[in-house]
């Protein structure tokens, strides 16, 4: 039964982007002509679509700002931010081509909760992240319905990785809100979804780890048309039955919420400010249960993100006659297995920012040129459509020589299809293309819209929203007729713009395992950063201590060794073709910290004023502190060799101690240092050094004047030492 349901709902997704080919979602090579390249032909300048009026609206209200801590204690700050794309620009009622699996008749009531197709209610806390919760809720619901598996994905990872804190982020903080197109960008670039356990939700932390294990590939996101009236609900209803929960938006005003009945109806005209998740409907829901009584019965069942203690266990009911509900974004997120493709070639990490086209034309051509990074196979193409029932034609060229095409060799693939709904789609190629490492290839798509004159979705810079968008020449090309091509970055106003076209590949050769580390030997605890250098790897299994147990499955793990010993490290990598392994015996060594040598070797005796050096060598890089009678005199860091020098202080006995530390280990060494009054004619081991005769002083003066060495010690007779001898002679004469 599970397999039948999964197949049925998978086929529904296929109908959203019908191909001409008899194979599901696979294109056909029939009934259209290949493009030729003739750059000499002129064509009108490309134009950009008008921006979403709500995006431009300076009066755009902060999301759910009427809710205060005294009301529910759930929210502060924005939660939904309108995108630059005018999602509402296309509102023609859709055909039933896409949503036909549910049958022709709709029930009067339907509830995904009773169908077991909704994951638990969550709480966004004090951060404006309702959009992330709604997007993830739709995705989780789809998986629950198609696979019978309840997943819990990380909203935290989504809300953080799309912020300005990251190179591929928008010009927003985690509290500035977002929209379904931002979620679409995060998911289709394969940043997520990741498990909640890998990045638990926090409404106070702005950063999340990169490169967490990906759980699914999002290859299809459907943007449903907005409602055109209170009873224009069929498309949303059929989407609920066929796919699961639907991302949508409302304008929240707490005064319109009926707490007694957990009902809501807004009658104003302000922009949407809150994202919610539709999970069902009831045509007979009593209109008298709303604070502002509408003209008819009926309500949608809505899942919120303010915790289970709010509303009806986290749910509430929105009247069909709400004036802002469903008039903006209505989006369905679907998922495929994470191993369907291995690599994602793309230039649009920020996704669908705007649309372009040619004046008074419903047709436009677009292309992205990529360079293969390995020996692989091109399996599929990803793209956005901007209208209902868009017809597309796909061409693939190898080694393009003039813009995106190769007129001499021609295309290697030509296929076509139709997408019933706006949104993001993936076309599986009927004819895969083998690519060699370093080989250039292009994906060329002709879009034919029925009514909307901006067929090409682009990523571009928009101040305050997507200013981190970047583009280089030779990446994206546009054309009116498929014969004359222009580099998009050379068009006025598009220097940092790319087309939203992706290419998906799989490897076609065995992986080769290899790895390195930032350190191989140290004291305990030893924390090692391993780097996976394998080629063609799709999964990683690390054994850090040779016990045969997998310790990590990420590409670049960190592991801490706490016990002394020699450790063998193994890495096993695999892809869809096979596997390979690399083992390095005794690769990591954890040894006790020790002092290898200490000089001088024993107790030290010197005369006052003599320069004395102490030094040690250790088996690990350490932090070294030198002490004289307990007072710190010198610190050196990350050294194996350290020395401390001191001109002998006044006569007396001293302790010189060195403390070396590495990790949690410490070692010390202490010297006893005896300093004597200086007298070159005394035995350095005696305790005399106090008396000096007149003859000795006269000889010292002679040595000093003639720059001679002292006979006994061969040391230099400096002026300072001569003055010391004179002092000793005077002290002796006085006695």
UniProtKB/TrEMBL annotation:
InterPro entries xrefs: Ig-like_fold, Lectin-like, Papain-like_cys_pep_sf, Pept_cys_AS, Pept_his_AS, Peptidase_C1A, Peptidase_C1A_C, PKD/Chitinase_dom
One example of a Gene Ontology biological process annotation: proteolysis
SMART domains on file: Pept_C1, PKD
Stretches the record annotates as Disordered: 60-84
Pfam family, one: PKD_4
Listed Gene3D superfamilies: Cysteine proteinases, Immunoglobulins
MF (Gene Ontology): cysteine-type peptidase activity
Domain PKD: 539-595
UniProt family annotation: Belongs to the peptidase C1 family.
The name this protein goes by in its record: Cell surface protein
Annotated source species: Methanosarcina horonobensis HB-1 = JCM 15518
């Amino acid at each position: 039964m599970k397999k039948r349901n999964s197949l049925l709902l998978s086929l529904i997704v296929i109908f959203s982007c019908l191909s001409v080919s008899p194979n599901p979602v696979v294109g056909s090579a029939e009934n259209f002509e290949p493009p030729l390249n003739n750059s000499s032909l002129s064509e009108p300048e490309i134009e950009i679509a008008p921006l979403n009026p709500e995006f431009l609206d300076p009066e755009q209200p902060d999301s759910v700002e009427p809710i205060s801590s005294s009301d529910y204690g759930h929210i502060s700050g924005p939660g939904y931010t309108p995108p630059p794309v005018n999602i509402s620009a296309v509102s023609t009622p859709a055909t039933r081509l896409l949503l036909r699996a549910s049958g022709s008749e709709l029930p009067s009531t339907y509830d995904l909760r009773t169908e077991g197709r909704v994951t638990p209610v969550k709480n966004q806390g004090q951060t404006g992240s309702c959009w992330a919760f709604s997007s993830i809720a739709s995705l989780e619901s789809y998986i629950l319905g198609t696979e019978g598996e309840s997943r819990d994905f990380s909203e935290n990872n989504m809300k953080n990785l799309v912020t300005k804190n990251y190179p591929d982020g928008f010009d927003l903080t985690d509290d500035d809100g977002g929209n379904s197109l931002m979620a679409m960008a995060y998911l289709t670039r394969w940043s997520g979804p990741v498990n909640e356990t890998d990045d638990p939700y926090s409404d106070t932390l702005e950063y999340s780890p990169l490169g967490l294990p990906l759980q699914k590939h999002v290859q299809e996101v459907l943007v449903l048309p907005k409602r055109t009236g209170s009873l224009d609900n069929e498309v949303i209803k059929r989407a609920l039955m066929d796919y699961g929960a639907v991302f949508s938006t409302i304008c929240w005003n707490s005064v319109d919420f009926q707490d007694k009945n957990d009902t809501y109806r807004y009658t104003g005209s302000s922009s949407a400010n809150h994202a919610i998740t539709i999970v069902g409907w009831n045509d007979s829901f009593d209109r008298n249960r709303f604070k502002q009584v509408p003209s008819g019965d009926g309500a949608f069942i809505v899942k919120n993100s303010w915790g289970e203690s709010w509303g009806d266990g986290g749910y509430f009911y929105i009247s069909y006659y709400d004036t802002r509900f469903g008039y903006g974004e209505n989006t369905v997120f679907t998922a495929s297995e994470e191993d369907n493709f291995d690599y994602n070639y793309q230039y649009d990490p920020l996704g669908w920012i705007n649309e372009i086209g040619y004046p008074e034309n419903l047709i436009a051509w677009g292309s992205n040129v990529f360079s293969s990074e390995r020996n692989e196979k091109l399996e599929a193409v990803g793209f956005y459509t901007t209208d209902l029932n868009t017809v597309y034609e796909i061409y693939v060229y190898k080694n393009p020589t003039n813009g995106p095409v190769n007129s001499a060799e021609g295309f290697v693939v030509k296929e076509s299809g139709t997408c019933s709904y706006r949104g993001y789609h993936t076309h599986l190629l009927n004819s895969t293309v083998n690519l060699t490492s370093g080989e250039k290839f292009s994906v060329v798509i002709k879009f034919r819209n029925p009514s909307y004159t901006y067929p090409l979705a682009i990523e571009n810079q928009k101040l305050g929203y997507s200013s981190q968008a970047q583009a280089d020449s030779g990446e994206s090309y546009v054309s009116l007729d498929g014969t004359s091509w222009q580099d998009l970055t050379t068009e006025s106003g598009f220097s940092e713009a790319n087309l939203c076209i992706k290419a998906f590949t799989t490897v076609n050769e065995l992986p080769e395992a290899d790895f390195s580390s930032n350190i191989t030997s140290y004291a305990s605890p030893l924390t090692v950063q391993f780097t996976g250098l394998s080629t063609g790897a799709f999964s990683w299994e690390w054994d850090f201590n040779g016990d045969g147990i997998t310790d990590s499955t990420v590409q670049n793990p960190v592991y801490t060794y706490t016990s002394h010993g020699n450790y063998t490290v193994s890495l096993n990598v695999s892809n869809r073709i096979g596997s390979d392994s690399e083992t390095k015996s005794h690769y990591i060594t954890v040894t006790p910290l020790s002092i290898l040598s200490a000089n001088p070797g024993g107790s030290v005796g010197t005369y006052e004023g003599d320069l004395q050096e102490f030094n040690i060598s250790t088996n690990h890089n350490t932090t070294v502190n030198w002490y004289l009678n307990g007072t710190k005199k010198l610190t050196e860091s990350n050294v194996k060799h350290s020395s401390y020098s001191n001109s002998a202080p006044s006569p007396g006995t001293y302790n010189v101690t060195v403390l070396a530390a590495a990790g949690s280990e410490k070692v010390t060494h202490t010297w006893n240092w005896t300093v004597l009054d200086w007298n070159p004619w005394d035995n350095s081991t005696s305790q005399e050094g106090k008396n000096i005769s007149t003859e000795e002083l006269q000889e010292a003066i002679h040595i000093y004047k003639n720059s001679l060495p002292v006979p006994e010690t061969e040391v230099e007779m400096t002026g300072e030492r001569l003055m010391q001898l004179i002092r000793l002679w005077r002290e002796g004469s006085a006695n």
